[in-house]
Design goal:
This protein is mainly alpha-helical and 189 residues long. The chain is built from nine helices and six strands, in the order H-H-E-E-H-E-E-H-H-E-H-E-H-H-H. The protein has a single domain, classed as 2-enoyl-CoA Hydratase, Chain A, domain 1 (Alpha-Beta Complex), CATH 3.90.226.10. Strands 1-3-6 form a three-stranded parallel β-sheet. Pfam families: ECH_1. It comes from Actinoplanes hulinensis.
Length: 189
């Protein structure tokens, strides 16, 4: 598992806005680092984990990796992580995966702009090494300034909408409908 997002057992006991604020802060930190952030995906990515993927600069996924935004099935919305996801995705693709909560594969993730590319599982390490080799050829200033160009809209969106998204997320987690859905999910384990 790359990342499953919020701990539902913890969220079931009441989630303050600190958790969503932290995911907003982390997305901003990834986007504003002066060096490119490369993500190697070798396991499932769910819910909040997609926000980390969305904030990264280069994402290389093994073919076997699956993704899902399951929030809608729990009475939630991907509020905080939408900050980094919506700029990466085609609007129709975003509507599909946000509203359905369905699981999709790495090839589809690449096609809709969530990941940079997908490769056969046994070629993942080599593909990441190749990407890193290419990046180290860039000068620190060139990389930082180019990254700033590429992420300026994303950072502006986080700065403009981050607090509201965190508050909305916290309110949804605290809602009676989400609390019942999270308990039902946990009881099925």
């Amino acid at each position: 598992m790359f990342c499953a997002g919020a701990d539902l057992a913890e969220a079931r006991q009441g989630l303050s806005s600190d958790g969503p604020r932290e995911i907003v802060r982390l997305q901003r930190q990834i986007a504003t680092l002066p060096k490119p952030v490369v993500v190697e995906l070798a396991g499932p990515v769910r819910a909040g984990g997609l926000g980390l993927v969305g904030a990264a600069d280069i994402v290389i996924a093994a073919d076997s990796v699956t993704f899902a935004l399951t929030e809608v099935r729990l009475g939630l919305a991907p509020s905080a992580i939408s900050l980094s996801l919506l700029p990466r995705l085609a609007p129709r693709a975003a509507a599909d995966i946000f509203l359905s909560g369905r699981t999709f594969d790495a090839a589809e993730a690449a096609a809709i702009g969530l990941v940079t590319r997908c490769v056969p599982d046994d070629e993942l390490a080599a593909a990441v090494a190749e990407a890193l080799t290419d990046l180290v050829k860039g000068s620190p200033q060139g990389l930082a300034e180019t990254k700033r160009l590429l992420t300026s809209d994303l950072v502006s969106r986080i700065d403009r909408d981050g607090e509201q998204a965190a508050q909305r997320s916290a309110a949804l987690f605290a809602s009676p409908e989400a609390q019942r859905a999270m308990q039902a999910f946990l009881d099925r384990r």
